[in-house]
Structure formats: C-alpha cells, structure tokens
Amino acid sequence: MSQLFSFPVKEGSSSVFAGTGFEVMKSKYLGAHGHIAISTNHIQRAIAYLKRQGVNTLPETAKEKDGKLKAIYLDSEISGFAVHLLQK
C-alpha cells in the first residue's frame, strides 16, 4: 500500500500505518475480515447519533487519552468488518 501510493510507513506496537488512511493490524482483532475506522470531529456526537439509529458501542473497546475518548467499536459488523469510531 505504501509503495503503490507513496505513503510513508509508520510502525506501531499493534499495527503498521501507510500514511494516515491505511492501517494493517499485526494480529487478528475484531471483525471476521478486519476493521474499518471512521474518523469524526466529535466522537460523542457520533455515538449519540448512532444510538438514535439503533446502533450501540462496545464499552470494553473504548480507548482513552488524557481522560478523553479517542476510539470505540460499534456492536455490529458490516459485511464481516468491525467498525470503530476514531476521534480526529
């Protein structure tokens, strides 16, 4: 991915990033086929909106930094992909 699109590679502890748009996990996590991240300007607003649509989150997947929610997975998969919200 990085060579094809000339994205810089960033090695993380649990994944490898190609630019800011692609992440490849080093080990299997949620989702039969992997996961899709959706970046949002306001993660709490996104959660409230999705809840009104009947979609819940998985509290045990919540990741915080400095006391603020940074990422959380939804409770259902889409075509075998887990979906998580990511605070920009």
UniProtKB/TrEMBL annotation:
Entries under InterPro entries matching the protein: Glyas_Bleomycin-R_OHBP_Dase (IPR029068)
Kinase is among the record's keywords: yes
SUPFAM superfamilies per the UniProt record, alphabetical: Glyoxalase/Bleomycin resistance protein/Dihydroxybiphenyl dioxygenase (SSF54593)
Organism domain of life: Bacteria
Keywords from the named record: Kinase, Transferase
GO molecular function: kinase activity
Name this protein carries in UniProt: Khg/kdpg family aldolase/carbohydrate kinase
Species per Swiss-Prot/TrEMBL record: candidate division KSB3 bacterium
